[in-house]
Design a protein that fits this description.
heterodimer; A: alpha+beta; DNA polymerase, domain 1; five-stranded mixed sheet; 5 helices; 14% strand; B: alpha+beta; Uridine Diphospho-n-acetylenolpyruvylglucosamine Reductase, domain 2; Uridine Diphospho-n-acetylenolpyruvylglucosamine Reductase, domain 3; Enolase-like, domain 1; four-stranded antiparallel sheet; 32% helix; Mopterin_DH_FAD-bd (chain B); flavoprotein (chain B); Molybdopterin dehydrogenase (chain B); oxidoreductase activity (chain B); FAD binding (chain B)
């Protein structure tokens, strides 16, 4: 099927089989390998991306379902000059990653949550990080990083809107 | 694994979807269980009908004391306070947080949970406890099946392969109903080992109506009829709730052993959780 994926404001005209899941289309057809695929069963969350602004498992959506729908991946987080997104800075500052396999998924999970509710509280963050699996850093630094990004954003220490 | 090859249709009307189902299509709504099953190659349809582009199926409406949940209403809708009025909305709001995690709740649908019929499903247990009615449509017509007759076993329902689960209807709960929902599971990620939803009404300290739904306490969702009968007419007391828990565990439940929860353990958890849920459900 001919579809056009709109990823990070770039158009990718594709010819995909209906069985192609969004994660595979992003990685193999668009060449955007920042999105990782772990379990392919909706459990690990490594493949989390934003579809129409919402964090979803890209292994549990078909690419053909996303024809013309705005998609954001981890490649779209950094600013136009390549400066890291506030979440990426916070993950670095809080040592929120080790092997890094789960990181793109956590970043997009958090980006979706913060765009939905910039006043994300500590309890919500604690519940949120349970959505994805991390097998080396543990959840505490990731929780701290997301909380820090949310707090910095609310204080306005960051000149740029989270969705920039 | 990857899903096996299939043809894809995105019907724009219910009638088109029903034609596709008559031709053997599998329905794709939220996709959070269907795509999982297709990845595991437990389901391999030749044709998938994606109903997400059919207008109107995402409606959540209340009229004449009945809540109607369309096939595309996502789990997350029930997390919004006021989405469903009164104690019914309160009960749904308490249950929804136990369903998977936020990204799954964003896509997955209540109707999809009922169509999948996982024995541990929170929504399925509430559907039987609350006397929900499942609306099934096909090119042959429309029929309504009470939730109590709809679930036939693990992942087995009264739905015929060519039927679309278009809506689920629930009678609203009276404003003075107290509700609670509790769940026991190994980790935040796990399916429920046991989940219990309850709705209670009382008058002058005496229980006048009790509804208890049990998830993963048998090969299908259950309503704890024996425990409910024991409660109606009893005075509100921890003793009555503990006895109801024992009754639910021994008479209503038919636990299936699981790797981390054998039958004795599950009966123990059911008794404790039913009593706890009832205590929390006492109307204030």
């Amino acid at each position: 099927m001919k579809i056009t994926l709109s990823v990070n404001d770039d158009a990718y005209p594709l010819d995909v089989e209906p069985r192609r899941v969004l994660a595979d289309a992003l990685r193999d057809d668009c060449g955007l390998t920042g999105t990782h695929l772990g379990c392919e069963q909706g459990v690990c969350g490594a493949c989390t991306v934003l579809v129409d602004g919402e964090a979803v498992r890209s292994c549990l959506m078909l690419a053909v379902q996303c024809d013309g729908v705005p998609i954001r991946t981890v490649e779209g987080l950094a600013g136009p000059g390549g400066e890291p997104h506030p979440l990426q800075r916070a993950f670095s500052a809080e040592r929120g990653l080790q092997c890094g396999f789960c990181t793109p998924g956590f970043l997009m999970l958090a980006a979706g949550a913060l765009e939905r509710d910039p006043a994300l509280g500590e309890e919500e963050v604690a519940a949120l990080v349970g959505s994805n699996l991390c097998r080396c850093t543990g959840y505490e630094p990731i929780r701290r990083a997301i909380t820090r990004a949310a707090r910095d954003h609310q204080k306005g220490q960051d000149g740029r809107h989270l969705s920039a | 694994m990857k899903p096996a090859a299939f043809d894809y249709l995105a019907p724009r009307t219910v009638a088109e979807a029903l034609d596709a189902l008559a031709a053997g299509a599998q329905v794709l709504a939220g996709g959070q269980s269907l795509l999982l099953e297709m990845h595991l190659q437990r389901v391999h349809p030749d044709l998938v009908a994606d109903i997400n582009r059919i207008p109107g199926l995402d409606a959540l409406t209340v009229s004449d004391g009945t809540l109607t949940v369309g096939a595309l209403v996502r789990h997350r809708a029930f997390a919004s306070p006021g989405a469903v009025p009164g104690p019914l909305g309160d009960l749904f709001g308490r249950a929804v947080g136990y369903i998977a995690h936020p990204p799954i709740r964003t896509r997955g649908t209540m109707a999809g949970s009922l169509a999948w019929a996982h024995p541990a499903s929170e929504w399925c247990a509430l559907a039987v406890a609350l006397d929900a009615v499942v609306e099934l449509r096909s090119t042959r017509g429309t029929r309504e099946v009470p939730a109590g007759e709809y679930f036939r076993g693990p992942f087995q329902t009264a739905r015929e392969p060519d039927e679309l689960l278009t809506a689920v209807r629930y009678p609203l709960l009276a404003p003075d109903t107290g509700v609670a929902f509790t769940e026991h599971r190994r980790t935040g990620f796990s399916f429920a080992q046991v989940a219990v939803g309850a709705a209670l009404t009382t008058r002058d300290g005496v229980i006048t109506e009790a509804r208890i739904g049990l998830a993963n306490c048998a090969d299908r969702p259950l309503r704890a009829h024996a425990a409910e009968r024991a409660l109606v007419g009893a005075e509100v007391s921890s003793w009555a709730f503990a006895a109801a828990g024992e009754t639910a565990a021994e008479q209503d439940a038919a636990p299936v052993p699981e790797p981390y929860a054998d039958v004795d353990y599950r009966r123990q958890v059911i008794a404790v959780l039913v009593a706890r849920t009832l205590r929390e459900a006492v109307p204030v």
